[in-house]
């Protein structure tokens, strides 16, 4: 038996006024997702436990079978692992975004314009982060460049307890009251303020202005964490698995869980990602020693944060066309029984531009046990109509693996 999870990050939504009260899942062209729902089990699952922040880290841990109330140690630490950063138990990590703030003389007057600087290139942001590290670095502090706008700060032998706000939660809003507070808040705020002074007129940013792109006008810290420790997936479920994703968070989760982390050329974490390449990577893994593969696609989430309604609908259609459909066809041609679990990790509603903890729709299909489905389509309304509800998200994978 082969097992596959296809996760469209932030794919679920609320009814959208501009779509006539429909959701992006309603409007997307997705015959293969509909096939999974109509020939399998469809329902709702709460991936984010009550009282836990509805973030991609907690939700994806849950989907992978790890209760975030037990195993979550902070987003940034998972990303640090993906970057190959060696952590000690007393180290504290922070996600460091390069962000675009409105152009004001005083940073206190700034608004958060873009949490990712128009998806700044890794080459550009690496130069900026390395230069900032030379300004800030000491025996207990290091900035590490990552991918695009996603980077990492490590404080050695430090305490946790900072009060931090994810930049995508305050898009279009003033930042003054959202600057870091609490433990390490003073040093984090100082680094943000100094980065604003240093970066605004950096040659890389001047060149981006000329090209009409958002500049990396500052850095922003969030996602405090410590060194993670996850039980091995292979020991937990008795099979070797693979993680396919463009984002450092998911690569870090994969590494911590002992999954094979597969790099896909052209995978970006946006709607311009290599959808086809992700499907091919999963199929190759399943044909060459792995019995489980996890495909994570960030695009719908990014579109939700940016209020890109048409692109969110389009991204769901691209997942269906280039990932879900080809994998169903290829796995059927291989002749071995397989099971596919399709779901988002959390909703990223267009009108809110941030995550919520609402239950999300899932479809669970088995090639050797096709159902006379209760629904015709895969969407939020159909999933709710079945009455199937999984209250503990970390147990859903047990249904997939028939535990």
Question: What labels would you give this structure?
Answer:
Alkaline Phosphatase, subunit A; 8-stranded mixed β-sheet; 5-stranded antiparallel β-sheet; 15 helices
Shape: globular
Q: Please name the CATH topology of the largest domain.
A: Alkaline Phosphatase, subunit A
Q: What is the CATH architecture descriptor of the largest domain?
A: 3-Layer(aba) Sandwich
- The tally of beta strands, per DSSP, is 15
**Class by SSE composition:** alpha/beta
Q: Separation of termini? A: 13 Å
Q: Strand arrangement, largest sheet? A: 11-10-12-1-13-14-2-15
Percent of residues in helices comes to 25-40%
Helix run count: 15
Integer average pLDDT: 96
Measured by DSSP, the beta-strand proportion falls in 15-25%
Largest sheet composition:
8 strands, mixed
Topology:
Blueprint: E1 2-8, H1 24-27, H2 31-38, E2 41-45, H3 56-63, H4 68-71, H5 75-82, E3 92-101, E4 112-114, H6 122-136, E5 141-147, E6 150-155, E7 162-163, E8 181-182, H7 185-199, H8 203-210, E9 218-225, H9 233-237, E10 241-244, H10 248-256, E11 260-262, H11 275-287, E12 292-297, H12 299-305, H13 309-334, E13 338-343, E14 360-366, H14 380-385, E15 389-390, H15 396-400
Parallel strand pairs: 1-12, 1-13, 2-15, 10-11, 10-12
Antiparallel strand pairs: 2-14, 3-4, 3-6, 3-9, 5-6, 7-8, 13-14
Helix pairs in contact: 5-10, 11-13, 12-13
Task: Walk me through this protein's architecture.
A hairpin with a 2-residue loop joins strand 5 (141-147) and strand 6 (150-155). With 403 residues, this protein is an alpha/beta fold. The two termini are 13 Å apart. The strands form 3 sheets. Strands 11-10-12-1-13-14-2-15 form an 8-stranded mixed sheet, with helices on both faces. The radius of gyration is 21 Å and the shape is globular. It has helices spanning 24-27, 31-38, 56-63, 68-71, 75-82, 122-136, 185-199, 203-210, 233-237, 248-256, 275-287, 299-305, 309-334, 380-385, 396-400, and strands at 2-8, 41-45, 92-101, 112-114, 141-147, 150-155, 162-163, 181-182, 218-225, 241-244, 260-262, 292-297, 338-343, 360-366, 389-390. Helix 5 (75-82) packs across helix 10, helix 11 (275-287) runs parallel beside helix 13 and helix 12 (299-305) runs antiparallel to helix 13 (309-334). It contains 15 helices and 15 strands. The chain folds into 2 domains: 2-72 and 231-400, Alkaline Phosphatase, subunit A (3-Layer(aba) Sandwich); 92-225, no CATH class.
């Amino acid at each position: 038996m082969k097992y596959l999870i296809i996760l469209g990050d932030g794919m679920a939504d609320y009814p959208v006024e501009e779509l006539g009260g429909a959701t992006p899942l309603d409007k997307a062209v997705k015959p293969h997702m509909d096939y999974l729902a109509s020939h399998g089990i469809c329902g709702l699952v709460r991936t984010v436990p009550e009282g836990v922040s509805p973030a991609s880290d907690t939700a994806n841990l849950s989907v992978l079978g790890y209760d975030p109330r037990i195993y979550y140690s902070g987003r940034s630490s998972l990303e640090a692992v993906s970057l190959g950063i060696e952590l000690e138990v007393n180290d504290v990590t922070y996600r460091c975004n390069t962000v675009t703030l409105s152009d004001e003389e005083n940073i206190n007057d700034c608004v958060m314009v873009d949490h990712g600087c128009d998806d700044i290139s890794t080459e550009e942001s690496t130069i900026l982060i390395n230069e900032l590290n030379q300004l800030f670095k000491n025996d207990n502090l290091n900035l590490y460049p990552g991918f695009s706008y996603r980077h990492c700060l490590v404080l050695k032998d430090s305490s946790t307890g900072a009060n931090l706000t994810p930049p995508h939660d305050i898009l279009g809003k003033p930042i003054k009251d959202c600057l870091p507070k609490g433990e390490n808040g003073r040093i984090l705020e100082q680094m943000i303020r100094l980065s604003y002074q240093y970066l605004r007129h950096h040659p890389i940013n001047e060149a981006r202005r000329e090209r009409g792109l958002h500049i990396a006008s500052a850095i922003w810290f969030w996602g405090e964490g410590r060194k993670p420790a996850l039980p091995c997936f292979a020991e937990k479920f008795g099979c070797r698995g693979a993680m396919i994703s463009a984002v450092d968070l998911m690569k870090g989760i994969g590494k911590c869980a002992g999954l094979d982390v597969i790099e896909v050329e052209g995978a970006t974490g946006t709607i311009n990602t290599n959808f086809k390449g992700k499907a091919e990577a999963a199929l190759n893994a399943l044909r060459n020693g792995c019995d489980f593969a996890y495909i994570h696609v960030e695009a719908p989430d990014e579109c939700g944060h940016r209020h890109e309604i048409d692109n969110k609908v389009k991204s769901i259609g691209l997942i269906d066309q280039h990932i879900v459909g080809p994998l169903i066809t290829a796995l059927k041609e291989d002749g071995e029984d397989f099971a596919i679990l399709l779901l988002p990790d959390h909703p990223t509603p267009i009108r809110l531009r941030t995550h919520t903890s609402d239950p999300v729709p899932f479809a669970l299909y088995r090639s050797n046990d096709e159902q006379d489905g209760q629904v015709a389509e895969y969407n939020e309304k159909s999933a709710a109509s079945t009455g199937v509800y999984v209250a503990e998200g970390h147990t859903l994978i047990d249904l997939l693996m028939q535990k």
